[in-house]
Amino acid sequence: MTANTDGEGVPYYEISRDGQVLIAPSQLGFLFTDADPMRRNFALSGVERGSADARWEQPWGERRFVTDRHNAMTVTFREKGGAQRSLAVQFRVFDDGVGFRYDFPENTNGGLVNIAEELTEFVVAPKGTAWWIQGGDWNRYEYLYQKTDIGSVSTAHTPITMRLDDGTHLSFHEAALVDYAGYWFKRFDGQRFRTHLSPSSRGPKVVRRGGFVTPWRAIRIADSAAGLVESDLELNLNEPNRLGDISSWFRPQKYIGIWWGMIRGDWTWAQGPRHGATTARAKQYIDFAARHGFAGVLIEGWNIGWDGNWFGNGREYSFTQPYPDFDLEQVAAYARSRGVQLVGHHETGGNIANYEKQLDDALALYDRLNVRVVKTGYVADAGGIIACNADAADPCRGEVFEWHDGQRQVQHHLRVVEAAARHRIAINPHEPVKDTGLRRTYPSWVAREGARGQEYNAWSRFGNGPDHDPTLVYTRMLAGPMDYTPGVLSLVGDRGMPFSSTLAKQLGLYLAIYSPIQMAADFIENLEAHPRELAFIKQVPADWEDSRLVAGEVGDYAIFARKDRNSADWYVGGVNDATRRDVTVQFAFLDPRRTYEATVFKDAPGATYENESRHTIAYETITLRAGDTRTFELAPGGGLAIRLTPERR
Questions:
Q1: What domains, with CATH codes, occur in the chain?
Q2: Which residues form the catalytic set?
């Protein structure tokens, strides 16, 4: 990594690897709403260097231990005239990528900084292919991925993934997004991209007082798709755990819920004859969870506010008052008596002004009822977050509208996480701001949505398409855990809509799409109708000692090997796109001193997502040792799931 200024005094950086330029000279700087730009007429004025080589432990995650090995350099640029302001940039260079951020001293612009735009560039030098979703559009992050030449990208959300023509893989994202606007990856010309900060109702996209640092701009760099997936770059760019040991109130888990019935249209969130969240149905789901060892039951639509127009509105929501046909106190007590916890639900309709007024009371209620995980929701079109127009004298002088990834919403999400942690409650937001590795600092921030989830399979024929899942692995999942809601074993959506998935793929999702809270999303009667598949879902962990991508390519397929953190078991599996393929797995990761019994769930011969054969699955039990190799056929839209248990000596 090289940093300097050009002939006009414009600060820039450049990244090369093994003698090849990956990021050509790319400008650094800022525009402000009330000050001259920080762009040109700077000179290099100071360099400080450092390094780190450490290993730290995750309380939960894809792997238990993370290595943080990097070289560091802080480069200071100083204005040659005018106010002679300083622009400091902190760089960290890892084996698997680069991170850099700006450091604003306390006296910048008199202590108040109004950022109109950040001028950070990423000039991708080699040609290649990109996988991306559009940024700044109405449906937030919930789009199918496009595959184009790098030079055909317009404005994208991050992470955006690229495979260069020589096989090098890149991913552009950010880390430690705190009190700042998220950025969109915007192409200007050729393969020159720039940060485009999410808008704000205030005019300036970011307003900060005193000294501060920006989020890290993160670039993963790897020889292969596996290297990209196995990188911990963004986690390493975040601060260590601030909450301490949370294991007394949150442990990775699996849950079921009163949810799929509303997504499919069988039940309603609103009151009426088809209301989903009734006391009787909640007890039925609690009984199922207790019988089968599920830790929690999600109940949506239990509280007042779902009647009428709640989408992008949320003005009528109460987060403490249940509907008349749902006895919250009784249901919570019943769950406790069965050894099951409720998974709480706070849908805001995008109205954070209403939610923040009730936040403390809502969290205190859940704390008293022993609810330890809450799914929050912000269902509104992009730019439709209803917030307070606040100042020091009046905290809410009327409603204003913000973006889901603007500074105001970034502040809101962290406020919810911190408030919930004080009540020993973990948070799983849907329609969120993108994950940027903050789960390291706040391990109660356990998952997010932030992509087109499995619910879309209920709404249109073949919903997400067969290549969506194996694309998520190499794009959205580079940001962090996703609450994708796998386990719809019936493979049927609204009005009988078929899934672009085989039955084996629904099991493979538990290995391909990581989350410490994994849902079995189908109706409980459909889960019980598939006892062997249900047994696998009950067994597969939500917390891992180690994770490796053992076979896969971006957008095509992804097969993982993951070791259970709490036993000697390994699990292998994943997902495929629409192409039938044979995948060879080398079991070199197994303990060479042991023999393993492998229970295999695979696509039946001739199966495909395109017809009723998607419901067929083949079972096999084989014996494996370290170094063995096996080839498995993946159906179009198919998957694979294997449990490997050491045989008794």
A1: 2-236 (2.70.98.10), 253-542 (3.20.20.70)
A2: 455
